[in-house]
Amino acid sequence: MERILLGKQMKAVDRYSIENIGIPSMVLMERAALGVVEAVEDVYKTGDKILVVCGNGNNGADGLAVYRILMTKGYRAECVILGDVHGGTEDFQSQRKIIKKCGYKYSRQESEEESPDVDIKSFDIIVDALFGIGLSRNVEGMYAEMINQINSEKLDDDEVKVISVDAPSGVDTDNGKIMGIAVRADITVTFGKSKVGLVMYPGAAYAGEVRVWDIGIPWSVYGTVLFDSRISPYVGEEIFQFEKSDMAEYISPRIPYSHKGTYGKVLVIAGSAEYSGAAYLCESAAYKSGCGLVKVVTSMENKAMLTVMMPEGLYEFYSAEGMDPDILKEDMEWADAIIIGPGLGQSENALNMLKTVIEEKEKPIVIDADGINLLSSNRELLLQLDDNMVLTPHLREMSRLMETSVSEIKKDMLSAVSAFKRRYKGTLVLKDARTVVAGPKKELFINTTGNSGMATGGSGDVLAGIIGGIIAQDPNFDIALKSMTGVYLHGMAGDMAAEELGEYAMTASNIVDGLAMVLKECKRR
Predict the structure, then answer these.
(1) What are the φ and ψ backbone dihedral angles of 285, each rounded to 5 degrees?
(2) Could you confirm whether domain 245-252+259-522 is CATH 2.60.110.10?
(3) Superfamily designation of domain 2-11+21-232
(4) Which terminus has fewer CB within 10 Å in the chain: N or C?
(5) What is the SS3 assignment for 426?
């Protein structure tokens, strides 16, 4: 797993390294500049002209160091500084003095009335060092105009490469918000650890390829700073993103001497007379995730379809009178993990089944779709959630749970997740282009797999099936980690499908099909 920091956390890490450890800030800057120079050299073609655009803060100081190193290496580079060159931070002034003593010149623009003595259109590589991770207000004036010129140049000529220093100027690195306008980078070289605002949208769409560059801060510093609850406003002081290499640890291994019961039994309570496909998608995803047996509790109207399309399944069909609670309890006793909600509807029968399931306090339970809608309209049930339960809402369902607007949640998904977790137990899987997972422990996970082709009907039913299937194979393992594993695999399977079919024509069934190759790649060796 890769740790991700808030911008304010990284600033605190920098400050602690300088003030308490004694690492000079200029040393950190030199190491940071080397990472940016390496990125420039990766995209450089013979004859390219390079422009370094600097503010007068510490990000600008990093930019000046980059400019100096490029000049020292013999590149055709120029530098323009926006803002008062005699003001700014102490480190900026130090770097500016070094530039002058080296005999390297720069252009400057100190007010909106002035124009910089450079023509952006004449450059092939632009290094953005206007603002770093400390931006706290909207970008305006000459800074906004400069960013607009950079973006326009890139739009006019896709051969132009833009490299941002630590963060694209204009992106709030705490949450990914765009502060009025932001640079659209091809590469962002960020220092120490990746930042939340570079992972979460819309910031992620501006960051391009994110490269994390080690600037020599000891691991002990991160540990000291990150557990200071005054810095993180979220329920989890630790924020992580999974990597493909993690899958071997969290996917249960196959055992040569085993049988179908070895790999867990999943009970899927899904589908209704109106919605039959949800039950099928959830069931097939649970099977394809590697579990041994799946039993579906659903409406009698689904019998013909399910028994033909999924003959491997076990079935419990109920009539118009509804499901017998005693039989449902027997099925729950049989299962290692329970999924309830996909296509279930919000009838009295559906509510009664949800109440019966929530009474189960020992086994892992995944509540999805209509199960979540029923919780929203019967809020007393939310207080009965336990730490063995997983909720998988999309943004609209989350807005009903939180009794707030979708737009408010989208402003800061991590805050929304944390607010929910402070009130209710269990693991929350908040689904969006970047899905956020939070469990009973003080950890948040951000998923980076997946693509726009997965924005299709049934994709959520597939995810519920994968999570339930992954959990059933090892129901005593950390449920939040298993849930995140399911989210990551779901995204990987979607990426596999998109690679084969493209993002336009994908369906939820294609995501299920992609699981086979994904699990083959990720299996424990």
Answers:
(1) -65, -40
(2) no
(3) YjeF N-terminal domain (3.40.50.10260)
(4) C
(5) coil
Taking the domains of the chain in order of start, what are their residue ranges? 2-11+21-232, 245-252+259-522
Position 100, amino acid: K
For residues 289 and 515, what is the distance between their CA atoms, to the nearest angstrom? 7
Decide the pairing of beta strands 194-195 and 2-5.
Answer: parallel
Is 69 in a helix, a strand, or coil? helix
Q: What integer pLDDT is reported at residue 233 of this predicted model? A: 58
Q: Give tens-digit pLDDT for 403-462.
A: 999 999 998 899 999 999 999 999 999 999 999 999 988 789 999 999 999 999 999 999
Alpha carbons 323 and 107: distance in angstroms, whole number:
76
Q: What pairing do the DSSP bridges indicate for beta strands 427-430 and 436-438?
A: antiparallel
pLDDT tens, residue by residue, 17-69: 999 999 999 999 999 999 999 999 999 999 999 999 999 999 999 999 999 99
Question: pLDDT (tens digit, 9 = 90+) per residue, 373-401?
Answer: 999 999 999 999 999 999 999 999 999 99
Run of H or E including 514: helix 508-522
Cβ pair 75, 52 in contact under 8 A? no
**In this predicted structure, what is the pLDDT of residue 247?**
87
For 384, list phi and psi in degrees, rounded to 5. Answer: -95, 0
* DSSP element (H, E) containing 149: helix 141-156
User: Taking the model in full, what pTM does it have?
Assistant: 0.91
Contact 450/433 with Cβ under 8 angstroms?
Answer: yes
**H or E element that contains 294:** strand 293-299
Q: What is the mean pLDDT of residues 151-178?
A: 92
Show the tokens assigned to 210: 């994110």
Instruction: Please tell me the distance from the alpha carbon of residue 224 to that of residue 227, in angstroms, as a whole number.
Output: 6
Average pLDDT of the chain? Answer: 92
Residue partners of 306: CB distance under 8 A and separation at least 6: 271, 276, 279, 280, 283, 296, 298, 313, 315
| Burial class of residue 398 (count of CB atoms within 10 Å of its CB; 0-12, 13-18, 19+) | buried
